[in-house]
Amino acid sequence: MGRVAVFLCHCGTNIAGVIDIQRVAEEIRKISGVAIVQDSRFLCSTDGIESMVDSIRSSGVDRVVVAACSFRTHEPLFQNALRRAGLNPYLLELVNVRELCSWVHEKEREKAT
């Protein structure tokens, strides 16, 4: 089984203002094979990407999941981060929690989480 890193983006308050990021992180940590769960205020920022690359390099993970916003705009950025960390960029799974969870359930935090 692979070693998976999961990165959760707050997207400022776009995601974290609705979704309970810490609760999601706690649940993800219970999943077999998950080696890292890390959250970032803005994962797409320079600091966010650098932290992601460093974590991937230092942990020996071989798969990455990013829960953030639209893959249509951010997939190349995160794929490049995997390349920089020495991973195949296609071992990345993006989950659009901004549009598909936090925006849909904006007034229902429990459902969004």
From TrEMBL:
Domain of life where this protein originates: Archaea
Name of the protein described by the UniProt record: Disulfide reductase
Protein source organism: Ignisphaera aggregans
